[in-house]
Design brief:
The structure is a single chain. The model is unreliable at about 160-165 (pLDDT under 50). The longest helix has 27 residues, at about 670-695. Strands 33, 36, 37, 38, 39, 40, 41 and 42 form an 8-stranded mixed sheet that branches. With about 1100 residues, the chain is an alpha/beta fold. Helix content is about 40%, strand content about 20%. It is built from 36 helices and 42 strands.
């Protein structure tokens, strides 16, 4: 809901139209905005026009030459008894092209306007939008910067609408086919309007009638002959005679830029040997041309409009020159005063607009040669190099962001590369001296002096090969086939390729290895996502990279407020979190300590967003929700399912990892199966109806279809084919049917569709496109067979739950696909988990830096107003909650209502009890080292604590007779977990719920869950004050905050009170200071 907006002035009054444009102020915001009010939207036509304008503006967020969309809203205004809509946009302090035409533009200024017009319209069309009303009134100019406005009658390609905008366009500037009927609008009709606008730019006259337009242009003075020819093609009467797209116009107008916008400087670029061949191989130039023609006609044209920047590559300064289609990467050779082009690269479409915004536009002319001899003696290359350096310094803020981001987060690249390297190194590999293909088997002769591969491989293992020279950074290992066996006498390693044709044959010598790519692919994806983020190749309209670096403040639109909360039990901090998250336009963080209801906040945010999207008919505005673990994702999905009737969501993930609700109601595989079953059933019913009309039985038709299939098989025996033909002829004769009858053809097509439908993978895209919410794990949602689709999709918002447990690269997987980012987590709880064994390959990596380098670092970098702390807990008894608040959150969390009622009758109603082992003999109470056979490493256990827990568990079970309590047992070490599972499995329990395999575990398995009673085994007890990772604050926080009614700690209180852990000392002190609700039991007697 948009509230508190005050009108400053009216820019365009209602008049005869149903809209008014105003300049407005927003509370607590110094910026000025524009509000467009649309009234009388009771008709479906006006409603459709409003929705399409909102849709178009959101699609074009981030386009430099289009007015920036801020927010929108629609609803019924009771005071005027009218259905109205508001659109909030940026305020452009300039004038329209028509108003600016009162002054005289210089020729270069006119071509700069043309360039920006073409850039803007090309971006609009690339977003599948037809503007339909391009004219001088809808082109704003301020400080030589151009922005296109007013998308009120735009057309969205691919969207079906039953309504028409009729004659709302400006007639003089509308193509003739649009004047006849507005639904004839197309890319070509926009091109006509664009040509008419350029005509106005040069003549200050509105265009004549379409039939006269071309003849008028031909006789108009003051327009370059080449531009005239371009305009004539743009405004041709027939759409088919116009340009196919704006790209073609840009290509033809490049010589004009060269003529009117370039300086008289000349720059030399020598082409490296093989560079033109590379252009040919990339299909960027024609192979039939000579090198000289390619240089003059193609390369010169490509770099008629050029943007340049300098970067550091492996310690060497290189200069990149981006042309229209491809770029050259060059080094400057000072002794020769020329640039040496070493490589060429194709430029993706999405990069073109960013290049024009961030890089230096080169105003001179490039001269290219394959030798050091150049056709032009003048050489200004050194001046260009200096200009590029100066420009780089002038955009110091951007460079500062780059440098700051690398300094704060650069270690993540090192980590990912180390993980990829370690995965590769761990894979068993063997050198071979030769290889040969025998039938379907590759035989590799292994080099002498290596171990027997039988000990490292199993039959069926996937095998890859690498050349003896190793892999370059961008090269991937090649898959060969499946391991079959090893002939030890000949040292021959045998791989079955199963009739496949290899994309690349193994080299004569090299290495074979067990396929490790499936293990490294997640790290590869994360590295690519991190690099995309660094290059700012994301749909976000804000500079999230600068925000994460702490240089740029996030943008909030404070007028976006919540008028009604769906959950009326949200407390003040929760409501603030929801309101601020909805007002955030790029990044917002929510810190949710244990039990503070962060899931309720997420559900409310989603409900508000879905309601907002519904109000503007924007089903395209999808929300991506991800979390670290499947259990957390499914719990959140269950809460959304309970709170939102008719929830439109798709759960991405392997069905084996999904909860029953997630799988059966929202699982992609289930939805596909249900849709296929329903569709096939309908198709069969329709077939029966058609057969009934034709008088054909289903059995006869099945025989007929089988016969047709037999004839289609080329390997069918002649007797079978003859019999099949007889069946077909008999069928036509019996039912007097024409073989070419439409009904028969339709039935055969339908039968083929039924047989193939289950194998079609593109069906699942239909469900994903139709869903409002996509939900999955941080890494899993891109691991599906929809990865290519998701990688090309921009979500309106991503909500990342348990964000503090994810690494920064894991966060990036979804961040780079979203316009807005909401991170929900708590950096005082468990950090990400790292495989420290794999990090031994790079000694420079700091584990603590990794743990603090994600959510916590972002939280510390952004302003306080950009995150919200949830300050009331509802999960635990108030005593447990107060202890958690005091020890871990500096007394900043208060207890919610009814938390005093969360307790048991045990221990005289105490809610925190420490069973101390300090009085037991040291030979019994001290920790013991044990070996974990499954993990092949040492751990710790404590037999005395395990025995006490067994005793107290039996006591609790009997004492809670007739009461339903859940119990969880957390041990600090894996060795203790295994001991407890073994000992407690034999104890009969009647009243409490304890799943031996799931409810007894380390703390890592418990984050996100809760139990009525938590028993915590500290394990550590010795003469030393060192207690290992038991001193880690987040682990204690999570362990103790899982308890709702009773926290039972079992351990050596004397040892831990003398340890290096401040937290343990604070817990012990809290228990002693709160003896009304806390106890210390010294195994057999109570100590206050």
């Amino acid at each position: 809901m948009l509230r508190g907006i005050e009108r400053k002035s009216i820019i365009k009054p209602f008049g005869e139209s149903n809209s008014q444009v105003e300049m407005v102020n927003v509370p607590n915001d110094e910026a000025i905005y524009v509000r467009k009010i649309v009234r009388n939207m009771d008709s479906s036509l006006q409603l459709a026009m409003f929705d399409k304008e909102c849709w178009a503006l959101t699609r074009l967020e981030g386009c430099e030459n289009v007015v920036r969309f801020i927010d929108c809203q629609r609803g019924y205004v009771h005071s005027r008894k009218s259905y109205e809509g508001w659109i909030i946009m940026e305020y452009i302090p300039g004038r329209t092209l028509r108003e600016e035409s009162t002054k005289s533009f210089s020729v270069p200024e006119k071509y700069r306007i043309i360039k920006q017009l073409l850039t803007a319209v090309e971006a609009i069309h690339n977003a599948s939008i037809i503007h339909r009303d391009l004219n001088p009134n809808n082109v704003m100019i301020t400080d030589q910067k151009l922005k296109i406005i007013d998308f009120g009658i735009c057309k969205i390609l691919g969207r079906i609408s039953s309504e028409t905008t009729r004659q709302f366009a400006t007639n003089n500037y509308s193509a003739p086919e649009v004047q006849y009927h507005s639904e004839n609008s197309s890319v070509q009709s926009d091109i006509y309007s664009l040509g008419a606008t350029i005509y106005f730019l040069f003549t200050k006259k509105d265009p004549p009638l379409p039939l006269d337009f071309c003849s008028v242009i031909e006789t108009t003075a003051g327009i370059d002959p080449l531009l005239k020819s371009i305009l004539l093609k743009m405004v041709a009467f027939k759409p088919s005679d116009r340009y196919a797209d704006v790209y073609e116009i840009t290509r033809d107008v490049l010589p004009l830029y060269d003529r009117y916008l370039k300086s008289d400087e000349f720059y030399r670029i020598q082409l490296a040997p093989g560079l033109i061949e590379k252009l040919i191989s990339l299909n960027l130039v024609q192979s039939t041309k000579s090198h000289n023609r390619i240089i003059i006609e193609d390369i010169g044209a490509n770099f008629a409009l050029t943007f340049a920047y300098v970067k550091d590559t492996d310690g060497q300064e290189v200069f990149v020159f981006d042309g229209h289609n491809y770029s050259f990467t060059c080094v400057y050779l000072a002794d020769r005063r020329l640039l040496y082009a070493r490589t060429v690269e194709n430029i993706p479409d999405y990069m073109l607009d960013r290049h024009s915004q961030r890089y230096l536009e080169v105003s001179g002319t490039f001269i290219f040669s394959e030798t050091t001899a150049f056709s032009v003696l003048q050489n200004d290359t050194f001046a260009l190099i200096n200009r590029i350096h100066d420009y780089s310094r002038n955009i110091a803020s951007e460079k500062n962001i780059d440098w700051t981001f690398r300094s704060k987060y650069g270690f993540w690249k090192t980590y990912l590369k180390a993980m990829i390297f370690s995965v590769k190194q761990e894979s068993p590999r063997f050198r071979y001296d030769s290889c040969s293909l025998k039938g379907d088997q590759f035989c590799f002769c292994l080099s002498e002096g290596q171990a027997n591969p039988v000990d490292s491989f199993s039959v069926g293992d996937k095998i890859i090969f690498e050349s003896s020279a190793g892999l370059s950074e961008n090269e991937r290992p090649q898959y060969v086939g499946l391991y079959v066996g090893y002939n030890a006498s000949d040292r021959v390693f045998i791989v079955d390729i199963n009739g496949r044709k290899l994309k690349k044959r193994p080299p004569h010598t090299g290495e074979i290895a067990k396929d490790y790519t499936s293990d490294s692919i997640q790290y590869d994806r994360q590295l690519r996502a991190l690099e995309e983020f660094e290059r700012q190749e994301t749909p976000s309209i804000g500079n999230i990279k600068g925000i994460f670096s702490g240089i740029i403040a996030p943008f909030f639109f404070s007028a976006s407020t919540v008028s009604h909360f769906y959950n009326d039990r949200l407390d003040e901090s929760q409501q603030l979190a929801v309101s601020k998250a909805l007002a955030a336009r790029d990044v917002f963080l929510i810190q949710g300590p244990p039990g503070t209801g962060k899931t309720s906040v997420i559900v409310e945010i989603v409900q508000q967003m879905l309601n907002y999207h519904q109000n503007v008919s924007s089903s395209y505005r999808r929300i991506l929700i991800v979390s670290q673990a499947h259990a957390a994702v499914d719990k959140l999905l269950a809460d959304l399912d309970r709170s939102i009737p008719g929830l439109s969501a798709i759960r991405i993930g392997d069905p084996d990892n999904l909860s029953p609700l997630a799988n059966e109601k929202y699982g992609l595989s289930t939805k596909k199966k249900q849709w296929i079953e329903e569709s096939v059933t309908k198709a069969i019913e329709m077939r029966k109806e058609v057969l009934s009309i034709l008088g054909v039985t289903n059995e006869e038709f099945e025989l007929f279809v089988s016969a047709i299939e037999c004839l289609r098989l080329t390997n069918s025996a002649s007797a079978e084919r003859a019999q099949a033909k007889a069946v077909i002829d008999s069928f036509y004769d019996l039912y007097k049917l024409d073989p070419s009858a439409a009904e028969i053809e339709q039935l055969l097509i339908q039968d083929e569709w039924i047989k193939q439908i289950s194998e079609k993978e593109d069906i699942i895209e239909y469900f994903v496109k139709d869903a409002s919410i996509i939900i999955g794990t941080c890494t899993g949602f891109l691991g599906s067979n929809l990865r290519a689709y998701f990688e090309s999709t921009a979500f309106e918002c991503v909500i990342i739950d348990e964000a503090a447990k994810a690494t920064l690269p894991e966060l990036m997987l979804s961040v780079v696909h979203s316009k807005r980012v909401i991170l929900v987590g708590d950096h005082y709880q468990l950090p990400p988990i790292f495989d420290e064994k794999r990090l031994v390959f790079d000694k420079t990596i700091d584990i603590q830096q990794l743990k603090d380098g994600g959510f916590k670092k972002i939280f510390d970098n952004i302003p306080e107003e950009s995150h919200q702390f949830l300050s009331t807990q509802y999960r635990m008894h108030s005593t447990i909650g107060s202890m958690i608040s005091h020890v871990f959150y500096d007394d900043t969390i208060q207890n919610g209502p009814n938390t005093l009622e969360l307790k048991t009758d045990l221990f005289s109603g105490a809610t925190i009890v420490w069973i101390s082992t300090s009085s037991i003999e040291t030979s019994i109470r001290y920790e013991q080292v044990c070996v974990l056979e499954t993990l092949k490493r040492n751990s710790l256990r404590n037999s005395a604590e395990a025995s006490i827990i067994s005793e107290y568990l039996s006591f609790i079970d009997k004492a809670l007779c007739g009461k339903d309590y859940s119990v969880g047992i957390i041990a600090a070490y894996r060795g203790q977990v295994e001991l407890l599972r073994r000992d407690l499995a034999a104890i009969p329990l009647s009243n409490i719920h304890l799943d031996i395999n799931n409810d007894i575990d380390t703390v890592d398995a418990f984050q996100g869950s809760q139990k009525d009673i938590i028993i915590y085994s500290t394990v550590r007890s010795s003469e030393s004050s060192q207690i290992g990772f038991l001193r880690e604050k987040p682990r204690l926080n999570v362990a103790f905050s899982r308890a709702r009614c009773l926290l039972l700690i079992v351990g050596d209180i004397e040892c831990l009170s003398k340890s290096s852990s401040d937290e343990f000392r604070m817990v012990i002190e809290f228990i002693r200071m709160n003896n009304a609700n806390c106890q210390i039991v010294e195994y057999g007697r109570s100590v206050k």
